[in-house]
């Protein structure tokens, strides 16, 4: 029986390994983590992450050929293939702070693999890492030269949260990079055989190590660039009376552009896009490619601009101050169908509004009050350093923030509503009922373009929706962008 061990039981390690276990019943898969709490949750009825379809997959194979354990060293020592899926956050201090990837967690995992291994192993980079990381990892693994053959593969993960299980069941492609030596190619073939249990062969791409590592950063940069492009266009739409949804639809009909990933929003969030682009920028700078670095940096810059623009629009529409006003925030997760709040635009928007002394009433169907308060108190880039690996971070105990468990409760007596996550339930809200219970004039600021602007205006709301023709009320105010 082939044994797989995955170090890191997070958003990637957990779902990815659960799907491998489901599709490959003859392979034993152990997912290990230094967080005892996370492992306990994976072994419980209440999994540590909310992801549609994940519960069913885990229940089908947990205890059969899928195991979650904190006995990291034992499972690594026994494995033939070791995936490393630990977090690779942005460095917060030292050389490259604010841009470069912090490989501390990766390096400590690699040192541990080197120390406990007694047999040959394939070590798979599942985490997103800077190009050329495999070279450094190889040096760490072979530093005490025990005669063990380690083959390093790059197998970046392309799943998106909220659709992770579908993405894993039917990936657009699986990418495997390896050394071009006979040993390297044998390792590539072994990993390919795992995926070939359910992924058609023509969707399993093999490349050299550096192409695989760089392709992951490139894919995220291209995806994020698409959102910044449509978001940049949304500002021009608001200035000219064009409608960003119509523009996106029209350009998406060009088969060279395509219709997906063109939804204008309050800004992209999530644990990957910003971190990976900043990492790309740093790699370009280190390679003397200043122009290339500044090109990609602009994608993050426009994203920050979009979040700021939204806050300014809220404040300027409400007579240039939100001080003491109740603002309902609907949605805190970085996208629908996940409870993940890492780099969610809601953090910047809420902090912007709190800076203007607003009173926030926040509702998200999947995010806990504790998480929201911790996020609002956290320093930039601290979010991806797991709490169990660092001193407890402070939480926002401010009286200016209330977290409630119902959209109607959140909006009661509010002066304005900010929609920051596109949860399906927000599309079905009874806005007449909401309007009746709000202060007047009642404002809706839709950061996800999910409301029917005309219907809401008929009810009496003053409505701002990203990239849509402005409400006459908003239009007549001094420019906020
Ligand atoms: P995560 O924070 O959810 O999980 C990482 C886990 O690794 C944590 O539970 C942490 O405790 C554990 N860990 C850290 N160091 C360890 C060690 N030395 N030994 C054992 N466990 C250790 O992160 P994630 O979202 O799963 O992301 C993991 C990697 O995958 C990152 O590089 C990320 O960029 C990449 N990625 C993420 C996504 C996504 O959607 N989240 C998608 C593709 C790629
Ligand atoms: C992303 C990549 O899509 C995935 O391939 C990679 O493996 C990890 O990073 P993820 O961050 O989970 O996945 O979600 P994604 O669907 O890409 O959304 C990222 C952010 O962009 C979210 O905040 C989302 O709301 C926003 N977004 C996405 C838009 O604003 N408009 C869009 O059209 C699409």
Automatic annotation (TrEMBL):
Source taxon at top rank: Eukaryota
Organism: Selaginella moellendorffii
Tagged with keyword Oxidoreductase: yes
InterPro entries per record: 6-PGluconate_DH-like_C_sf (IPR008927), NAD(P)-bd_dom_sf (IPR036291), UDP-Glc/GDP-Man (IPR017476), UDP-Glc/GDP-Man_DH_C (IPR014027), UDP-Glc/GDP-Man_DH_C_sf (IPR036220), UDP-Glc/GDP-Man_DH_dimer (IPR014026), UDP-Glc/GDP-Man_DH_N (IPR001732), UDPglc_DH_euk (IPR028356)
Pathway, per record: Nucleotide-sugar biosynthesis; UDP-alpha-D-glucuronate biosynthesis; UDP-alpha-D-glucuronate from UDP-alpha-D-glucose: step 1/1
UniProt keywords, alphabetically: NAD, Oxidoreductase
UniProt record, GO biological process: glycosaminoglycan biosynthetic process; UDP-glucuronate biosynthetic process
SUPFAM superfamilies hit by this protein: 6-phosphogluconate dehydrogenase C-terminal domain-like, NAD(P)-binding Rossmann-fold domains, UDP-glucose/GDP-mannose dehydrogenase C-terminal domain
Any single Gene Ontology cellular-component annotation: nucleus
Catalytic activity reported: UDP-alpha-D-glucose + 2 NAD(+) + H2O = UDP-alpha-D-glucuronate + 2 NADH + 3 H(+)
NCBIfam families from the UniProt entry: NDP-sugDHase (TIGR03026)
Annotated protein name in UniProt: UDP-glucose 6-dehydrogenase
UDP-glucose/GDP-mannose dehydrogenase C-terminal domain sequence ranges: 328-453
Any GO MF annotation of the entry: NAD binding
EC number of the protein: 1.1.1.22
Enzyme class: oxidoreductase
């Amino acid at each position: 029986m082939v044994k797989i061990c995955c170090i890191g039981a997070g958003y990637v390690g957990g779902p990815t390994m659960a799907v491998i276990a489901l599709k490959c019943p003859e392979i034993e898969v152990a997912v290990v983590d230094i967080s005892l709490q996370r492992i306990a949750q994976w072994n419980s009825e209440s999994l540590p992450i909310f992801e549609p379809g994940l519960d069913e997959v885990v229940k089908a194979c947990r205890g059969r050929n899928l195991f979650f354990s904190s006995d990291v060293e034992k499972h690594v020592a026994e494995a033939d293939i070791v995936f490393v899926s630990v977090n690779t956050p942005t460095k917060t201090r030292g050389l490259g702070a604010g841009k470069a990837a912090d490989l501390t967690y990766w390096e400590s995992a690699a040192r541990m693999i080197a120390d406990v291994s007694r047999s040959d192993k394939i070590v798979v980079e599942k985490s997103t890492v800077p190009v050329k990381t495999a070279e450094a990892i190889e040096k760490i693994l072979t530093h005490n030269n025990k005669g063990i053959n380690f083959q390093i593969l790059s197998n970046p993960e392309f799943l998106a949260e909220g659709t992770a299980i579908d993405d894993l069941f039917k990936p657009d492609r699986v990418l495997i990079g390896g050394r071009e030596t006979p040993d390297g190619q044998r390792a590539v073939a072994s990993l390919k055989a795992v995926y070939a249990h359910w992924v058609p062969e023509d969707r399993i791409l093999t490349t050299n190590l550096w192409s695989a590592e760089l392709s992951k950063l490139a894919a995220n940069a291209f995806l994020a660039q698409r959102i910044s492009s449509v978001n940049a266009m949304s500002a021009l739409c608001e200035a000219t009376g064009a409608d960003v949804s119509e523009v996106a639809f029209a350009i998406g009909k060009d088969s060279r552009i395509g219709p997906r990933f063109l939804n204008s929003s309050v800004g992209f969030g999530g644990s990957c896009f910003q971190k990976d682009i900043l990492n790309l920028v740093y790699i370009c700078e280190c390679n003397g490619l200043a122009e290339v670095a500044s090109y990609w940096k602009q994608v993050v810059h426009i994203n920050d601009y979009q979040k700021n623009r939204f806050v300014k629009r809220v404040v300027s529409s409400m007579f240039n101050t939100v001080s003491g006003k109740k603002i309902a925030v609907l949605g805190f997760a970085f996208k629908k169908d996940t409870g993940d709040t890492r780099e969610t635009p809601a953090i910047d928007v809420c902090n912007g509004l709190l800076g203007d002394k607003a009173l926030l009433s926040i509702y998200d169907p999947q995010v806990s009050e504790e998480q929201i308060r911790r996020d609002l108190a956290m320093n930039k880039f601290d979010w991806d350093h797991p709490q169990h690996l660092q001193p407890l971070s402070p939480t926002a105990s401010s009286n200016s923030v209330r977290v409630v468990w119902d959209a109607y409760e959140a909006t009661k007596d509010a002066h304005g509503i900010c929609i920051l996550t596109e949860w399906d339930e927000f599309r079905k809200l009874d806005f007449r009922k909401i309007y009746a219970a709000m202060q007047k004039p009642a404002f809706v600021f839709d950061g996800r373009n999910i409301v029917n602007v005309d219907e809401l205006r008929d009810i009496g709301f003053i409505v701002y929706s990203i990239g849509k023709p402005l409400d006459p009320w908003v239009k007549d105010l001094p420019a906020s962008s």
